[in-house]
Design brief:
By secondary structure, the protein is of the alpha/beta class. The protein folds into two domains: about 110 residues, 3-Layer(aba) Sandwich (D-Maltodextrin-Binding Protein, domain 2), CATH 3.40.190; about 100 residues, D-Maltodextrin-Binding Protein, domain 2 (3-Layer(aba) Sandwich), CATH 3.40.190. The chain contains eight helices and ten strands. The longest helix has 18 residues. The chain is elongated. It starts with a helix and ends with a helix.
């Protein structure tokens, strides 16, 4: 249409691309991004949302959100935030099963994310670290954190919550932390970019805004 052509060729619009996983985009980035759009209406953000590393590391992606130790070759990395991990469930599930202490999780269905990233904390890691009873009965496996958390919201079991990343879900009580048991996430979330290529003004603006959101 004429309107689309006008927008596509508007020289006043500047663009920046950012790559992230589906979970990070849905739970952390999207609930905050309207503030950036309102403040920078002349910047168009091209989102590369994928759980495949090959997609996130395309040459045309300016910024990336990565979970790890921050030590990646040819990447400049600035820590966005640390996180902590706890068991979460829907309010109804927690009330129905009277989950208040770690021992109350024994025998309940555990929604597990596996085969995504070897650095990902599993239920075995969490239960071992917290000293909670460890039973794998009722383990339900997913290869998507988004779907695992949706299953938790639907009352289908307990999931591991990266508490800073899923804060919007906790704020609206779509999920609740079921016990006080939690562990520090072994890795952190970083905003990164190719160290061999200078960032554009638009990319610097978005990077600085991302860092301000984690302050």
């Amino acid at each position: 249409s004429a309107t689309l052509q006008q927008v596509s060729h508007n020289p006043a619009l500047r663009s920046v691309s950012i790559g992230s996983t589906m979970a990070f985009a849905q739970f952390w980035l999207m609930p905050r991004l309207h503030d950036f759009w309102n403040a920078h209406q002349d910047i168009v953000i091209d989102h590369m949302i994928s759980d495949r590393n090959a997609d996130l590391f395309r040459n045309d992606v300016d910024l990336r959100i990565r979970y790890g130790d921050g030590g990646w070759p040819d990447e400049t990395a600035v820590k966005l935030f640390d996180d902590r991990i706890a068991a979460v469930a829907s309010p109804g599930f927690a009330a129905r099963h009277k989950v208040k202490q770690a021992k109350d999780m024994a025998g309940l269905p555990l929604l597990s994310v596996e085969g995504v990233d070897w650095t990902w904390t599993t239920w075995s890691d969490f239960l071992r670290a917290t000293g909670a009873p460890h039973r794998k009965l009722g383990l339900r496996r997913f290869n998507s954190y988004v779907i695992a958390l949706q299953a938790a919201q639907d009352g289908q079991g307990l999931a591991l919550g990266w508490m800073n990343m899923i804060k919007p879900l906790l704020s609206k009580r779509a999920l609740v932390q079921v016990t006080s048991n939690e562990i520090a996430a072994p890795q952190a979330f970083y905003v990164t970019w190719n160290s061999k290529r200078a960032l554009s003004r638009e990319a610097e603006t978005l990077r600085d805004w991302l860092l301000s959101q984690s302050a």
